[in-house]
Amino acid sequence: MTIDMSMPGSSGLLTAVGKRDMKFFSNQYVLVLTGCAGIGGFLFGYDTGVISGALLYIRDEFPVIKDNYFLQETIVSMAIVGAIIGAAGGGWINDAYGRKKSTLLADLLFALGSLVMCAAGGPYILILGRLLVGLGVGIASVTAPVYIAEAAPTEFRGGLVATNVLMITGGQFFSYLINLGFTEVPGTWRWMLGVAAVPAVIQFVLMLYLPESPRWLYWRDEKAKAIAVLEKIYDSNRLEEEVELLASSSMHEFQADNTASYLDVFKSKELRLAFFAGAGLQAFQQFTGINTVMYYSPTIVQMAGFTSNKLALLLSLIVAAMNAAGTIVGIYLIDRCGRRRLALTSLSGVVISLVILAMSFILQSSSSLCMDGMNGSCQGTLGYFAVAGLALYIAFFSPGMGPVPWAVNSEIYPEAYRGMCGGMSATVNWISNLVVAQTFLSIVGLVGTGMTFLIIAGITVLAFIFVAVYVPETKGLSFEEVEQLWKKKAGGRHDNCQSLLGDAA
Ligand code: BGC
């Protein structure tokens, strides 16, 4: 089929769009592309999850690590430091070199880092390996959602990006399974860390057969190649419409000469508004405490009075399984209820769960409520309440605040800034992740577990207000429609595609 590539920009953009009713499972090509890109998400989950278990065995092998908490913390958090750097730089690499090369680079870092850790003879090489996989995680955390979103039909774009989040939560579950399953055979940790090279190599090979993102190609003026990719996704009617949308988009106004700069984000009102919404979502995803639960669930379970190590690990595996299962519900709901409703419902449930969790800990520490002679059973009951609060927390978080920030960030920025802004807000996510992980136990030590969860509940109320006020609904909108939406919010300018450029220049 031939497409007229000289089509003028359509001012009736919002009305020109026909019926969009493709179904999630009807497009094998996009599903395969999502599955391959999602291997990056899997490695994100696996590499951040596996270290807690691997560390137990590493400590046994290296006495110098066993006696040094600082070294242990550094081994754990170096991957997050790497992810902060990887996400910040990865955004720029995405815009300058494309989604495909970014994924290949992430794979090289994943594979190299895994092999370095596998062969490490001491703590410093291990730390280097963690830094390398962290860089890979950071780049993948920006690239996979954007690559998937740019190939996705609008009607189930959210579900496809949420599928990448399922790969993250699936990777975490798998790493916990490995942690629990592996025995204390010397050298076990080398397998646990080294095995992550395998999916990285698989993704590298698969990516060689997958195309560059059609939207990125179009923006770089490789229109014929872009259309060849779109032809694999859409039938001829829809193809024409999609190409018309691309042609009418403002992306050609800022041609791909790499003039986009990080500073533009603060100079242009549209970008500023979009970045505020995206980065805020990412920060709140972390400050509403998901990783206190993911990283410390065994500790929380023990704080609630269940002292067996094995039971604590088993319960944390159940938490990870619930998290993955909940993400599947999110995939189903995100394009039906929309991003806002899903996030707001999720946050409401999270507040309730946190209050239950907090109250069980607070009541448990004030034994006056448990009558003499009944103290044991009363404490036990409160312990069960705490675990129920934890389960409820995951049930509400996982379908909403898990996938929504990643989905929204993959779709709210204009083409020339999609990688850059997505990278900046992923950096906000990783920095917030580090802050929460590093301070949770100290805050518990300072004000108590119950009070800490109450503080997180307070932050979650702020998150609710933030989403209600600043996050627009992007369900079912094309990228072009999203651009119009920000222009309108920035001051009612509908067709002034120059505004970003003009402001930024
Ligand atoms: C978050 C991760 C988190 C995971 C757990 C992701 O969306 O970005 O930080 O560990 O969800 O479900």
UniProtKB/TrEMBL annotation:
Alphabetic keyword roster: Membrane, Transmembrane, Transmembrane helix, Transport
InterPro entries, alphabetized: MFS_dom, MFS_sugar_transport-like, MFS_trans_sf, Myo-inositol_Transporter, Sugar/inositol_transpt, Sugar_transporter_CS
Keyword Transport: yes
GO biological process, one term: polyol transmembrane transport
One GO MF term: transmembrane transporter activity
Record-level GO cellular component terms: membrane
CDD domains: MFS_HMIT_like
Location relative to the cell: Membrane
Predominant place of localization: membrane
Keyword Transmembrane helix on entry: yes
Bilayer-crossing regions: 29-58, 70-92, 104-125, 131-149, 161-182, 188-210, 273-296, 311-334, 341-363, 383-408, 428-447, 453-471
Record-linked SUPFAM superfamilies: MFS general substrate transporter (SSF103473)
Lipid bilayer topology: Multi-pass membrane protein
Domain Major facilitator superfamily (MFS) profile span(s) in chain numbering: 33-475
A Pfam family: Sugar_tr
Record-stated family: Belongs to the major facilitator superfamily. Sugar transporter (TC 2.A.1.1) family.
NCBIfam families xrefs: SP
Protein name (Swiss-Prot/TrEMBL): Major facilitator superfamily (MFS) profile domain-containing protein
Name of the gene: gb15197
